[in-house]
Each structure stands twice: as C-alpha cells, then as structure tokens.
Amino acid sequence: MHLQEFDYDLPPELVAQHPAEKRDHSRLMVLHRRDRRIEHRLFFEITEYLHDGDVLVVNDARVIPARLLGRKETGGRAEVFLLRHLASGGDHEAVWHCLVSCSKKPHPGTRIRFQPSLAAEIVEVMEEGYAVWFTAEGTVKDELREAGWTPLPPYIRRDHPARDDGQDRERYQTVYARAGGAVAAPTAGLHFTEALLNRIREKGV
Fold this sequence. Notes:
Blueprint: E1 27-32, E2 37-42, E3 61-63, E4 67-72, E5 77-88, E6 93-102, E7 111-115, E8 118-126, E9 129-136, H1 140-147, H2 167-171, E10 179-182, H3 194-202
Parallel strand pairs: 3-10
Antiparallel strand pairs: 1-2, 4-5, 4-7, 5-6, 6-9, 7-8, 8-9
C-alpha cells in the first residue's frame, strides 16, 4: 500500500466555507455495509437509522478560541495555538502548552503581543511545541477569550479570521457543549439541534 493511493482530486469550489443555514440540514452519507449501497440524505433523517434501545454517546467538550495572532517584539508575525493549560500563578499569569508558528524558529525569551492588554513569552521548548507564559492587564482567561478566534479546520478560509462576526464561535460549537477546554470542535456532533435530540430521545434512544 502506498500513500498516493489515498490521494484524490477535491475541487476547492466543492468545499463549503460556511455551514448550512440550519444545523440539521447538512448532508448525511449513509453506507449500508451489507450490500455496500450508499445513500445521500440530510442529517435530520438520521432518526431513521436509530432505534429503541440504541445508545448515542456525545462529546460535550466546549471549544475555546484557541488560535491567537500577534507580533513578536521584532515586528514579525506570530501565530500561537493553545493546546492545554499547564499552570497558573494567580489571575494575571498563566502557562500553556502551545504550538507557535513564525518566520524564524522561536526560542525561550521570545515575546509576542496580541493586543495592548495581552502578551506572551516563550519560557521552554517542549517535545512538541512550547511552554508559553501569558500576562494580561485583566485575567488571562478573559483576555485569551477576547483575543482568540475559533480554531477552524485548515480548509475553511476567512478574510480576517481574528475578528469574525461571532457566527463561527456559535456554529463550531455543539448545542450540548458544557465542559470547556477543547481546542478542536467535535465535528460529528455539530449537526445536532435540540429539536433533533428530543426526537431521538422520544424514539427510546
């Protein structure tokens, strides 16, 4: 088996850049394993394939605005992607495990400013990524939420992603999101609505 066997042509115009107007009206492909037949349906029709006694498991992780755009002290652009919280030292500082992308490989001591009230410094090179120490005029948590933007998949393009109209923050979040901390949307659940979930429950699922 070779890697090129998985390669295929996907015309850019076929990649949706915005979600369907209604969550549960996204497309649903159904593969019937017994006869290898494929159906193209709409997501709200998933109820036809769920039955009394089935169990539906959902991921209730809430996506944080994990992508940050800033500039180094030298003026160059830098992009920081939050992976996981490492430590905090009160309301005004926090250390995160991050991926950092800029023109030159960053090193401990590199400082990045995202907005007047939020800055960061790389404090340690980790096995994958960096330990980054954030400082803010207010609480780091609030400043990160304000400065960050939704970590969209790489095939979704935005002219100015750091300042979307709020739609991305709402649509790339499941309706049952509860626990914060996820840095990527649990995409399989994005198409459920409260009404659809209620219909599924009514079926005994």
